[in-house]
Model the fold of this input.
Amino acid sequence: MMNKAKKNDWVKIHNIILGPEERAPQVPEDTKKVPLELWVKGYLIDEKAEIGDTVVVKTVTGRRVSGSLIEIEPSFNHDFGSYVKELAYIGPGLRELLKGGEHRE
Done:
């Protein structure tokens, strides 16, 4: 993992938006116990920075956001979660139903 970034590098930042004591009174109790956090990916505006530095990024939508630099050239690592056996039957069952497998009036 890289530790130094330069201007226009694709980076990820982190910021605490609200501390637990600043959370709205109507949020659930377990939510009130943790801060409201923000993670943003964007292009580094600063000339150079290291992991942990407070920086400004420009997002793909043009917003400028500041936060602590946590990753340089972050990857997209998402998935749809673990296999759920019951969901495996929904697609084929729905296709059969839409083909007219069940008569409706």
Summary: Strands lie at 4-6, 10-18, 36-44, 48-50, 54-58, 64-72.
